[in-house]
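Response to reviewer comment R2.3. The reviewers asked that we include at least one raw input/output pair. We reproduce the pair for MICOS complex subunit MIC13 here without editing.
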Amino acid sequence: MAARILPVLKLATKVTIAGGALYVAVDYGLLGSSEQGSQALEKAKAAIPPALEEWMKYFGVELPTMPKIEFSPVESWNSGVRWTISSLSEAPTKASDYTNQGIQYLKDLTK
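Raw output as returned:
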């Protein structure tokens, strides 16, 4: 009987953890717009340093100071998608340019 319950218990634990992570991500706005993501980043920036200090005092560990990172998710949101679409839109022109260069190179070799 225990051999049948253990896999179900493991699956239930995994589903609970995944569901909790998804709930937290939606609750903090991580899956929303870029503005919501930026607000979530600001909340995290405000909450993480005090929590780290508390844990450092509790465990008696000394960590180096955290570097200041100036990153705006609003400005870089989907920049990879934009770059990819831009490259794909330029691909036919670039292909014809490279083809013409290759033909000219071959003509110069055969002279």
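The radius of gyration is 27 Å. Residues 79-110 form the longest helix (32 residues). Further pairs are available on request from the corresponding author.
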